[in-house]
Amino acid sequence: LLFSVSNLCGKCRPSDTDLLQPSLNFLYWSLHQTTPSSQQRAVAVLLSNVSLLELLQKVLECTWLWSPPSRPACLSSEDALLCSGWLLVASLLLYQHRYNTEVHQTLSVNLTEVLNAVIFRNKKPILLLVSIMQFLRTVLRQNFSSSLLVIVGQNTAPSATQPQPSSLQDTALHPLAMQQVFSLVVSLQNLLVHVQLQKDLLLSQAVVACLETLVEYLYAKNQDVALHVASQPWHLFLLFTLLSGGQKSFLQPEVLRLMTLFVRYQSSNIISQKEINQIIQEAAEANIAELPEATSCALHFFLSQV
């Protein structure tokens, strides 16, 4: 069935949204809802289908071609297809790396477009934004080195004859540039403030996860840059904003995960012993069994990091 559906997708065009969107969802869940041995075979089947990968390439490119102003407030069939495409590609990248599966056709993605999708948003639906951030997290974790993916539109190192102030950092962070990193961090912070108003747990989890992965990537590339990003004073204002809503508790999943991030990278100007004590006190007074799963997991990781 997986073979048949993947072949069917390869015969479609991106405009065949009614057929493609559920088909890509089937391929996505076939990868995730199966045993490890079957998962490895499923990845091999999908990556050997050149027509499917060419179709996925066209779907990803439609993200930048389809006009944002025409998008309705609700998720359109076109946007739903884009969500499925980005999530499936992120999964293929993940499992191809895990099983070192042979690649018969590469996918090409413009890094600048991906970053700008998160930085500027351009009225993109929340689910599409979450899907693109899931893809971004995957390539960051793989250090932009997947044999399945070709990154274009990337940062190039400055020439030796005209050195720039951030040239050393840009070279170390390649293919990212310092300017892109700071723009992305500020945009993720702004998204979290937006989430505080909209109360969207899915988006808040995706944003914090993306910020975590970004700092991990920076730390592996240049520890000084990572610590500099993690200790930005704007993070403190962000925490005050998140705690100033209706729920003033530190026991919010996004707050706990941010606190964990700051403890991990020793951002003492953002989180002090006072805040750590306050979180532990709130946890001691709470009924742990009644906490939502997202809060319980975030609290576990925070206490483990402390």
Summarize the helices and strands and which ones pair or pack.
Elements: H1 2-10, H2 17-32, H3 36-47, H4 50-65, H5 77-99, E1 107-110, H6 111-120, H7 126-141, E2 149-152, H8 167-173, H9 178-198, H10 201-221, H11 223-230, H12 234-243, H13 253-264, H14 273-285, H15 293-305
Parallel strand pairs: 1-2
Helix pairs in contact: 1-2, 1-4, 2-3, 2-5, 3-5, 4-5, 5-7, 6-7, 6-9, 7-10, 9-10, 9-12, 10-11, 10-13, 13-15
Describe this structure in words.
By secondary structure, this protein is mainly alpha-helical. The chain has a domain at 1-29 and 41-66 and 76-153. It is 68% helix and 3% strand. It contains 15 helices and two strands. It has helices at residues 2-10, 17-32, 36-47, 50-65, 77-99, 111-120, 126-141, 167-173, 178-198, 201-221, 223-230, 234-243, 253-264, 273-285, 293-305, and strands at 107-110, 149-152. It has a two-stranded parallel ribbon. Helix 10 (201-221) packs antiparallel against helix 11 (223-230) and helix 10 packs parallel to helix 13 (253-264). It is globular. It starts with a helix and ends with a helix. It comes from Thryothorus ludovicianus (Carolina wren). This is MEI1 protein.
